[in-house]
Amino acid sequence: MIIVLPKPCFAQEAGNDTLSITIPTADTLSAPKGALEAEVRYDARDSIRFDVITQKVYLFGKASIEYEDIKLKADYIEIDWNIRELKASGLPDSTGTIKGTPIFNQGGQEFAASEIRYNFDSKRGKIVEVNTKEGEGYILGKTVKKEANDDFYIRHGAYTTCNLPHPHYYIGTGKLKVVKNKKIITGPAYLVIADVPTPLVLPFGMFPNKKGRSSGILFPAYGESSNLGFFLRDGGYYLGISDHLDLALRGDIYSLGSYGLKAASAYKMRYKYSGQVQLNYSDTRFGEQELPDFTRNKDFFIRWNHSQDPKARPGTMLTANVNAGSSTYYQNTISSGNDFLTNTFQSAISWSKSWQGKPYNLSSNIRHSQNSLTKDVSLSIPDVTFSVNRFNPLRPKDPIKQDNWYSRIGMSYLFNARNDLETKDSLLFRKESLQNFRNGVRHSIPISTSMKVFKFFSLSPSVNYSERWYLSTIQKSWNPESNSVVTDTIKGFRSARDFNLNASLNTRVYGMFRLKNMPVTAIRHVISPTVGFSYRPDFSDPFWNSYGQVQIDSLGTTSTYSFFEQGIFGGPASGKSSLLNFNLDNNLEMKIRNRKAVDPTPKKVKLFESINLSGSYNLAADSLKWSPISLNGRTNIMEKVDISFGSTYDLYDLDSLGQRINILLLDNGGNIARMTSGNISASMNLNRKARQNKPSLDPNTPEMEMIRSNPGDYVDFDVPWNLAVSFNLNYSKPGLSEGTITKSISTYGDLNLTPKWKIGFNSGYDFENKDFTYTSLNIYRDLHCWEMKFNWIPFGFHQSYNFQINVKSSVLQDLKLIRKRDWYDN
Predict the structure, then answer these.
(1) Number of Cβ atoms within 10 Å of the Cβ of 282
(2) CB 68 within 8 A of CB 148
(3) How many CB atoms lie within 10 A of CB 47?
(4) What is the rounded CA–CA span in Å between residue 628 and residue 652?
(5) Has residue 581 got a pLDDT over 60?
(6) Strand (E) or helix (H) holding 332
């Protein structure tokens, strides 16, 4: 309860060595004239002195004031109730150093100053030597006046994005105005770096201070290219449409006629979806139009990433990852090394739905793939799949009877409808290409079971049935006038069916060889043999009505062809198949005892993760019954070097033309087999543990989205060093010709020279062409509020360099120095 008197009443409360005072407000019953609009609370750590005659209060030692949305802390506060004004400052300590200078906070906006004066009635104030944060920047000033509408006027001020008390750089000005949550305006301003004024002077300055998104001009970078002329690059306008959507429109223009247009938008609806869209178009012209070496390239590229929050619509998901455009876009425009080295671009837009508690799944996809070297483009518009998860139709409801062999028979169903096109990128949007879409429907029903036999073996028989539906097939005929085979398209529904029977028998054999009084305590060998049988009838037999006969020459020779050979899912295979196949997988490990370790448990070391031998024998073939034999393996050395190898061997001999003949090498006095191909690769990351032990970041934060979209713009100092090397060797000898060997080595890495210096590189060597592969060198220097970047490609098609020093903050992103030479200027 507060008792109100004609003059302020002081009530003292003691607790924790703090004095707390409450002042009457205008809302209190029978409040005196001139009372404040809200309650004022203040306290002090050391002492509070009252002067009732002059109506002043003096607070000493970690004093604080709270009034409405104002909070003030200082070592000395003086309140004059006659004029409703307070003063705050610091106090000297035993060494004479001023401590406890005022910190003023109002509405989330905080000021640090050496002295503050504030009037409760007018809500105006005067601040001396202010330091406050505004948006992404900081404002420093000798004298500041605060208005009732929370605007500030500053004399002898400075604006900077450096958070140090003595900033590395600032934009100095005689006059500065801060409009709350809108903008910062300066009079004539000049740039100061390391306390040294620069010749860079501006007649005025304006900086955004609006919370959230705001629109504004994107200033271009300028320069000169010897081949493209003078240029303005990446200039445009940014639209902060809302907190959920933005749009950046940029453009490039060159004095010799080239230009480019770019649009980028990011959108996000919390708990629903998020994504980014980028549209790029360029018109690049090299040389003079009247000269024969003049070239002009029109290119475009589209990127779209969309992800849906799983909680938005449980059971339904929409995702998109689109990368499509001209095959020559990254060859004819300025791009990063990763983009330039990418030859294949793929896109996928996927919608899927599942029914809770039901075994049904439905998905629809739009896919795209293109190769920038071959110019091939593949489209799938759409690819619809409906599936029924595996179920057991013969499983009895009684749990006791569910252990019968027939209760484990399971089946599933898959429906797939596709509409595909394969063409060249230059023909993609022509009418004749749109008429070449291939489409069809396929139904698949696999039925399988498994059972234990002979105690240690597992038998898995299966039957696979497939049916294809088409709206058109082909028919071939002999044309005696042109002496050629003519293929006609026959419209109309037609179906094709096939099936196969399979069975596999597998087990696992363990072997252990123990050693005594040795560092290696044991060697463990695991063998996993599998023997299988697969049967498929000859669907080219007239009984199945899937194949026809056609004359192929003037002598009357005939050949068999499939009515469905141009179908999107193909047709039933020809030729009877009765395959007996085998697979032998080996795993070899050893256990090592470390006598010096506290834990006596031996350490397990993998000698070979896998050594796999596989092949097949066709009982139904009249010749060449053995398939090529494959030998593959992989291992890891000291958890640093990954090694994998593969090879293929042929058991049959060759004739004088290099063709396989039905004579085994062993029967012809030769070796068991001949090697036709082989490869070995080794990769090493010397600092793999540093990346594995690094704490993972939340992938859904805006910062991580920016890093994923622009990986080249971010430097990771958490990994002090990294070095990775990979080596590849390939061997091929298909016939009588001499075998060919290709080998290459590539390496990349980075190193923190100091906590602020980082250097990275990427290179390799092609032994066949006797030349270096794509090579780049990157140097980064963290200058606290500034940064330095240097990228150099010393040789090759993209030979270039780029040197840049810039302010880190996006508010002053145009405050930078660039020196560069682009690849097209060579």
Answers:
(1) 20
(2) no
(3) 11
(4) 9
(5) yes
(6) helix 329-332
- Which residues 6+ apart lie within 8 Å of 525 measured at CB? 510, 511, 512, 513, 586, 587, 588
Structure tokens at 482: 């042109």
Q: What is the DSSP letter of 438?
A: E
Closest CA to 39 of 20, 25, 19: 25
Residue 473 parent element (H or E): strand 457-479
Distance CA 804, CA 710 (A): 17
Residue 476's pLDDT band, with cuts at 50, 70 and 90, is: very high
CA 250, 135, 710, 807 dihedral sign is positive
Q: Mean pLDDT across the stretch 330-354?
A: 73
- Summarised one tens digit per residue, pLDDT across range 272-309 is 999 999 999 988 888 777 778 788 888 888 999 999 98
- Residue 769: the pLDDT is 82
Q: Take residue 477 and report the two structure tokens written for it.
A: 């005929």
> What are 806's strand-pairing partners?
787, 816
Confidence (pLDDT) at 470: 94
DSSP reduced 3-state for 705: helix
- H-only helix segments in 350-446: 431-434
d(CA 224, CA 227): 9
Dump the DSSP string for 563-617.
TTTTSTT--PPPS-EEEEEEEEEEEEEEEE--TTSSS-SPEEEEEEEEEEEEEEE
Burial of 819: CB neighbours in 10 Å, binned 0-12, 13-18, 19+: exposed
| Bridge partners of residue 437, in order along the sequence | none
Q: What is the pLDDT of residue 32?
A: 41
- Sign for the pseudo-dihedral over CA of 64, 67, 69, 70: negative
Distance CA 316, CA 362 (A): 10
The distance from CA 495 to its chain's CA centroid, rounded to whole angstroms, is 43
Q: Distance between CA 451 and CA 406 in Å, rounded? A: 9
Are 718 and 694 within 8 A, CB to CB?
yes
Report the distance separating Cα 384 and Cα 420, nearest Å.
12
The pair phi, psi for residue 212, each rounded to 5°, is 85, -160
Task: Share the mean pLDDT of the chain.
Answer: 83
Taken in order 237, 238, 240, 244, the sign of the CA dihedral is positive
Q: Determine the average pLDDT of the residues in 686-697.
A: 56
CB-based contact 74:90 (threshold 8 Å)? yes
Backbone angles phi and psi of 812, in degrees to 5: -115, 45
For the chain, give the longest Cα–Cα distance: 131
Check residue 340 and give its pLDDT: 57
Written in H, E and C, the secondary structure of 172-198 is EEEEEEEECCCEEEECCEEEEECCEEE
Inform me whether the pLDDT recorded for 617 exceeds 90. yes
Beta bridge partners of 249: 237, 263
pTM, to two decimals: 0.67
For the chain, the straight-line distance linking the first and the last C-alpha, in angstroms and rounded, comes to 85
Using CA atoms, how far apart are residues 544 and 5, in angstroms rounded to an integer? Answer: 110
Residue-wise pLDDT for 67-89, tens only, equals 888 888 999 999 888 888 889 99
* Peptide bond before residue 542 is cis, with ω within 30 degrees of 0: no
Note the pLDDT of residue 564: 93
d(CA 69, CA 89): 20
Q: What share of the chain is helix, strand, coil (3-state, %, to 5)?
A: 5, 60, 35
Q: In whole angstroms, what is the distance from residue 315 CA to residue 327 CA?
A: 37
pLDDT for 212 beyond 70: no
